[in-house]
Specification:
Distance between the termini of chain A: 122 Å
Radius of gyration of chain B: 23 Å
Structural class of chain B: mainly beta
Helix content of chain B: under 10%
Distance between the termini of chain B: 14 Å
Strand content of chain A: under 5%
Largest sheet of chain B: 6 strands, mixed
Largest interface: A-B, 42 and 48 residues
Helix content of chain A: over 70%
Order of helices and strands of chain A: HHEHEHHEHHHHHHHHHHHHHH
Strand order of the largest sheet of chain A: 1-2
Oligomer: heterodimer
Keywords (chain A): Cell adhesion, Cell junction, Coiled coil, Cytoplasm, Cytoskeleton
Radius of gyration of chain A: 69 Å
Number of helices of chain A: 19
Strand order of the largest sheet of chain B: 29-28-34-33-32-31
Subcellular location (chain A): Cell junction, Adherens junction; Cytoplasm, Cytoskeleton, Microtubule organizing center, Centrosome, Centriolar satellite
Number of strands of chain A: 3
Number of strands of chain B: 41
Shape of chain B: globular
Organism (chain A): Salvelinus namaycush
Family (chain A): Belongs to the ADIP family.
GO cellular component, one term (chain A): adherens junction
Structural class of chain A: mainly alpha
Largest sheet of chain A: 2 strands, antiparallel
């Protein structure tokens, strides 16, 4: 098969299609005759159109053979199902077209598939070959690197070995050098001793020589060695020279010691002066220290204690207390030490007494220690305060708190002022109502309130400036409350007498007692006004009377609650109280109760003035919670 | 500031009498005595040879002239010009001659320090003191003239002998704990004797007049030690200059170190003022001629002008690195001087030869630094005022006072180069010594204020 296949492929490449017909004509007999005679007829129409040399496979005579061959081939290829059969035995050249076409189609499909797979494999093979190449290259490169690094390591090993050798030699060198140094040192030492010995020897020799020379020169009676003076001079001091005697020697000694003594005296005096100066300085320092110590620990402690003790821990409070105790001790000690100091200084001035000096130095040391500890304490306090401020600053802005507090306090002051004002007003009313008519009373009240307003305004301004002013204000208020209490008491008495009068009026002794009762009324209130007003609310009066009857025997007379007072005085009519805002009233009552509480505390507060601010704060808080 | 005309002198021999009235100068073998104020020659004496050393007696009545080579000393009287005295030491030789404080005895040190001969001018008596030590300062008289301390060497040990100058009675003789004593110096009040060791060992010993050892001070070991020593006029401080370029100040009560003055190459002490001398050629008609230039303008057109400039800190001071392998290396504080009022101390470090340091003794700190263009030859304090005069071997005189610094050109002709300066005891004039000449400089109070800027 191969033979004709190749010839068939060669020929079309050389010749044209026109020539193919001739070739077919020439070639077809050679193999059509012996191999495929049956297929010739069926392939004839195909060969007419485009078939060239391949058509020679099947001729009309070898169709069945071809078919069988193809079937066999197809079977071998796995297309068993689709067999190409001859369409009919009678038509020898015809084919059953459907399976043939199917077969062809499948063949084409297969061919395409195989082609694709081949292409893929080709690509694969290309890829793998390139990869192989790459791997080979890298391999060779790595081999090179390995070689190189091997060479390097060997080089390094060599260098290390050399270095170690060097170290060894250097160590040897060092050892030899050390030995050398030691040797040299010993040499130097020996040389030095030798030199000093030689020097001494030489010196001895030279002194011997000098001695000898001196002897020689002196013994020689050198003619030249002489003094040639015209006439001898008198001594510079005009005295005659003296013989050398023991007396002279003693005098010289004496003079020497005298000069020494005088020098020591001068020095001593200078030192004394310096000492006195220093003592003065010390004394002054001490006095100042004592004054500082006796003053300063009081101030911070008294001011600090109140709000430091609340905020500080126990551990920090205890040293504070210690300090206050210490300051007391300080003062005592300071006082006594001051006395001793003065004494000691007097002593010191007269005679630099050791004892006095010790005392002075000791007391100075004491004071100094105390001052130091005090300073440290102050430092720690300052740091504590700073810390607490920082802590506070983290939670809230202190300025804001301050402002809030100020606002609250202002509000409170305003309220208190209102309260005081109304109280004053009421008091005035109470006082005036018996003697004046309503208009004049109102006028007076107005005047009074105006005046009061002015005063309060002033006080308000003062309060803004200082908190202490507020305290004073509070005091004023409490005073007013006391006054009110007093007035109340007076009024109660008054009323009691009046009631008695009334009672007496009801009783058969009316006529007899009336005159006197009215007289007492007049004497008390100097007006007949309440006579007309009181009967208008008899029920209330009785009610209050009963209350008064209950309360009077108790401590009520001393400190009645203002609300009750108002009720008894009919100053708060039911309608007005109901028409008023409940909150307002509530606050009033609240503050009233507080005041009544405070009234009871008035006397005690007079003693402890410092508690005010706290109560004010609490009051403010309560009011805030109410409103 | 006025300058006198120039006189001749030789061997830098020019001394003012202690009473301040006379000026004695030596010119070869002649001794010339002049009136200080008029500079007129009062006396002229002729010696036997060229004078090597000349000294006034303490009462200003006699002048000693020594001719060491011939072993001769001649004494002249001012009151009796005819009077003479000649002392011949003969073959034993002479290396040093000096007056005793009473002015009636002459102490001659013979060659090889064999002995000290004490010649009396009152009697024929001659005394010998054996075994004087040849050292930096072997003899010192106390300020009041009562006592003399003499360093001695016997049997390889150092001794100090204290003599009463009145009759040369040996008051005390004691051994000192020194390896090789280098010098002795009385405190100005005459009660403490400072004794220091040679430069091989840093050691200062303080002895009382009666020979008790008061204290010993040693700053360090194993290095070159003391180079110079100076008492403050009040005897309150003892300044010790050493080879480590530091000055240590001892106090007179505990004899312990009060402070230490370092001489650094870089000055960055903000409290110190650094004056630097700046030279420049004179420019005729330049508008910025300062006062002293006006003064010196006339005769020194060809000389360089110089003035002080205040340098901003830090300042690098020129340092010459000494050759430490050679003996006596040029390093360390070699000269120190306290001002007469005890307030200032002037020092010079040899490795910074151009620089003079002025220290404030009240503050115990550096006050001023004078950096000159050439090496400082000599400096001396005014005996009355806190004023320091210095010279650097050129034709200029430099003055420092707390108010400032000034450089003055000496208007002398013929290359007058100031080698040393000496104050007159009144502090009103200065004697400037050149190589072969001398010149007086009169300080005038009114002018002085103008000059010091």
């Amino acid at each position: 098969m191969e033979d004709w296949w190749t010839t068939a492929t060669i020929e079309p490449s050389i010749e044209n299609h026109e020539l193919s017909g001739i070739a077919r004509m020439t070639m077809s007999p050679s193999w059509h005759h012996n191999k495929l005679p049956t297929m010739h007829s069926s392939t004839m129409p195909l060969s007419k159109s485009s078939y060239n040399v391949l058509s020679a496979f099947c001729t009309e005579d070898n169709v069945p053979r071809c078919i069988s061959y193809i079937n066999q081939e197809m079977d071998s290829l796995g297309f068993s199902s689709a067999c190409i059969e001859a369409s009919s035995p009678e038509v020898s050249g015809g084919l059953n077209t459907v399976p043939a076409l199917n077969g062809m189609y499948e063949l084409l499909q297969m061919q395409r598939r195989s082609q694709r797979s081949r292409q893929e494999q080709e690509a694969e093979s290309l890829k793998s070959s390139s990869a192989l190449e790459h791997l080979q290259i890298t391999n060779s490169r790595l081999k090179d690197q390995l070689e190189l690094s091997k060479r390097e390591t060997s080089g390094l090993h060599e260098a290390e070995r050399q270095l170690q050798l060097k170290i060894k030699t250097l160590q040897n060198c060092l050892k030899t050098e050390k030995d050398e140094e030691q040797k040299l040192q010993s040499i130097i030492a020996s040389r030095a001793s030798q030199y000093s010995h030689d020097a001494k020897r030489k010196e001895r020799e030279s002194t011997k020589l000098k001695e000898r020379l001196n002897q020689l020169l002196v013994e020689k009676r050198d003619k030249k060695l002489a003094i040639d003076v015209l006439n001898y001079l008198g001594r510079a001091d005009g005295k005659r020279s003296q013989w050398k005697t023991g007396k002279v020697e003693a005098r010289h000694e004496g003079e020497m010691y005298k000069s020494l003594l005088s020098d020591y005296e001068v020095r001593h005096r200078a030192l004394m002066l310096e000492n006195v100066e220093l003592k003065k300085v010390l004394q002054q320092m001490k006095r100042e220290m004592v004054s500082i110590l006796s003053l300063s620990p009081r101030k911070p402690c008294s001011s600090f204690r109140d709000h430091v003790e609340d905020s500080l821990e126990l551990s920090t409070r205890s040293p504070l207390r210690d300090s206050t105790a210490g300051s007391d001790r300080d003062k005592e000690v300071g006082d006594c030490s001051r006395e001793t100091l003065d004494q000691s200084c007097d002593h010191a001035r007269e005679q630099s007494c050791e004892h006095a000096r010790e005392q002075l130095t000791n007391s100075i040391r004491q004071q100094w220690r105390r001052l130091k500890s005090h300073m440290e304490r102050l430092d720690s306090q300052a740091s504590l305060v700073q810390q607490s401020q920082q802590r506070a600053g983290k939670e809230l802005v202190p300025r804001q708190i301050h402002e809030e507090e100020m606002g609250r306090m202002r509000l409170e002051v305003q309220q208190c002022k209102d309260f005081i004002q109304t109280q004053q007003q009421l008091l005035q009313q109470q006082l005036n109502s018996p003697c004046y008519d309503d208009e004049t009373a109102a006028l007076l009240n107005d005047c009074y309130t105006l005046e009061e307003k002015e005063r309060l305004k002033e006080e308000w301004r003062l309060f803004d400036e200082q908190r202490r002013n507020f305290e004073r204000e509070r005091e004023n208020f409490t005073e007013a409350a006391i006054r009110l209490g007093h007035e109340k008491k007076a009024f109660e008495e008054d009323r009691a007498s009046w009631l008695k009068n009334q009672f007496l009026n009801i009783t058969p002794f009316v006529d007899r007692k009336r005159h006197s009762a009215s007289e007492t009324q007049h004497a008390l209130s100097t007006s007949s006004e309440p006579d007309m007003r009181i009967p208008s609310t008899p029920a209330r009066l009785t009610k209050s009377r009963t209350y008064a009857a209950f309360s009077t025997p108790k401590a009520v007379a001393g400190m009645p609650s203002t609300a009750e007072l108002y009720h008894t005085l009919r100053l708060i009519p039911d309608s007005s109280s109901s028409s008023r805002g409940s909150s307002k009233r509530g606050s009033w009552q609240e503050s009233n109760t507080i005041h009544s509480r405070e009234d009871s505390r008035v006397r005690s507060r007079d003693r402890y003035g410092g508690g005010d601010c706290c109560s004010i704060f609490s009051l403010g808080l309560e009011e805030n919670s109410l409103t | 500031m006025n300058f006198s005309e120039v006189f001749k002198q030789s061997n830098q021999l020019c001394r003012v009498s202690p009473d301040g009235k006379y000026l004695a100068t030596c010119v070869q073998y002649r001794l010339v005595v002049r009136d200080v104020n008029t500079l007129q020659i009062l006396h002229l004496y002729t010696c036997l040879d060229q004078i090597v050393h000349m000294e006034w007696s303490s009462d200003s009545l006699f002048i000693l002239c020594a001719m060491y080579k011939r072993g001769l000393v001649q004494v002249w009287s001012l009151e009796q010009p005819d009077w003479y005295c000649k002392i011949d030491e003969g073959s034993i030789g002479l290396v040093s001659s000096r007056w005793s404080p009473d002015g009636r005895h002459i102490l001659n040190t013979t060659e090889f320090h064999l002995r000290v001969t004490v010649w009396s001018l009152c009697t024929k008596a001659v005394s010998y003191i054996k075994y004087p030590k040849a050292c930096q300062k072997g003899i010192d008289f106390s300020r009041d003239g009562c006592y003399m301390a003499l360093a001695e060497r016997r049997d390889c040990r150092d001794y100090v002998s204290v003599f009463v100058c009145d009759d040369w009675h040996l008051l005390r003789h004691f051994e000192t704990e020194t390896q090789d004593l280098a010098g002795v110096e009385w405190s100005p009040n005459g009660c403490v004797l400072a004794v220091w060791d040679s430069c091989l060992e840093y050691k200062v010993l303080l002895y009382s007049l009666d020979g008790r050892l008061l204290s010993t001070f040693s700053a360090y070991e194993w290095s070159l030690g003391i180079k110079s020593l100076a008492w403050s006029p009040s005897s309150q401080f003892l300044a010790i200059g050493s080879y480590d370029e530091k000055v240590r100040i001892l106090n007179h009560i505990t004899w312990k170190k009060v402070t230490e003055f370092d001489h650094p190459a870089t000055i960055n002490n903000t409290k110190a003022v650094v004056y630097k001398e700046v030279e420049r050629k004179p420019v005729v008609g330049s508008p910025d001629l300062s006062i002293q230039q006006h003064i010196t303008m006339g005769s020194t057109l060809f000389n360089t002008q110089s003035k002080y400039e205040i340098c901003p800190l830090p300042v690098q001071v020129p340092v010459v690195k000494p050759d430490l392998d050679r003996a006596n290396p040029k390093v360390g504080v070699s000269s120190m001087a306290f001002s007469s009022d005890n307030r200032y101390l002037a020092t010079k470090n040899d490795s910074m030869a151009c620089v003079v340091w002025v220290w404030d003794m009240q503050r115990l700190g550096l006050l001023a630094v004078l950096e000159q263009t050439s090496a400082v030859r000599c400096f001396q304090w005014d005996p009355r005022r806190p004023r320091l005069a210095l010279c650097t071997g050129n034709a200029k005189l430099y003055l420092w006072s707390p108010a400032g610094c000034v450089s003055v050109q000496v208007p002398a002709e013929g290359g007058f180069q100031v080698q040393s300066v000496t104050w007159h005891c009144s502090g009103d004039s200065l004697i400037l010594l050149g190589k072969e000449q001398l010149c007086l400089c009169y300080m005038e109070v009114g002018e002085e204020e103008d000059d010091i800027k």
